[in-house]
Write a structure and sequence with these properties.
- The complex is a heterodimer of chains A (about 70) and B (about 250).
- Chain A is mostly helical and about 70 residues long.
- Chain A contains 4 helices and no strands.
- In chain A, helix 2 packs antiparallel against helix 4.
- Chain B has about 250 residues and is mainly α.
- Chain B has one domain.
- In chain B, helix 1 crosses helix 2 and helix 2 packs across helix 3.
- The longest helix of chain B has about 35 residues.
- The interface between A and B is medium-sized, with 14 and 20 residues.
Amino acid sequence: MEVDAAKAIGAGIACLGMGGVGIGLGNMFGNFLAGALRNPSAADGQFGRLIFGFAVTEALGIFSLLIALLLLFT
Amino acid sequence: MASDPIHQFNISKLVPIEIGGLDFSFTNSSAFMVATVVAAGAFLFVSTASRGLVPSRMQSIAEMTYEFVANMLRDAAGSQGMKFFPFVFSLFVFVLVANLLGMFPYFFTITSHIIVTFALAILVIGTVIVYGFWKHGLGFLNLFVPSGVPGVLLPLVIAIEIISFLSRPISLSVRLFANMLAGHITLKVFAGFVTSLSAFGVVGIGGAILPLGMTVALTGLEFLVAFLQAYVFAVLTCMYLNDAIHPGH
């Protein structure tokens, strides 16, 4: 029983990592929007880089979600 | 939990083969790898079989995929990198089709197993190392020595560069595998909420609309992730190949 409880606690703690990714993604999209509003003509050219940064950053959040899911379901 | 969300990743043997104590069985994973290659190959073959100056819809998709990968490689590695185009194109199409095939219900997602993605990543890094040493000899080691670093910091920087280089196959494979695994588990968990909520009678069935809508939205997100991860895998491959072609910083 204690192991199950520790697993649940660990899964909860692991999910904290996703908060950092939330901050990072918010920063990224916010800055992109700020830049895009200042120079809308250059925005489309940088969209690929935005998506690339999104995927690389989001992967880190997925890692912590993965740890949480593995703790819960294996 | 009503249904086990991990069950979808089970590997089952379709044709058991054992040679000299080693397991060479044809599994459902192998079957879907074959299906991926056949689907991608058949699509590219059919769409370019009747080539026209004004492309048909299918031909446009094939041409757009080609242009997309070619531009990606040219931007990252320059025109010298174009000799790696068949390699990068095959990798991109294989990962993309494997991810998209995995989105069908009851289909097996081969990229959700780390051994598959790790084999792909090792293939990329192995190509980088072999080509780098073959092309530049020991000059390839310049990759680990950034220019303009003060001598005092140099040992530390070189150590960091080597560790970052060695962790590339791990981060490349874990990124793809973890995204597909976590995405599919999340889908299953939310789908499980629908059935367990509707066990509570009328109120539960009404409430089950929320996780059902969430499942639909997540499926849309998963299609985006399936494409994005194939794209990121290909872009990072291009960047690593660029290191092999131009090792100086």
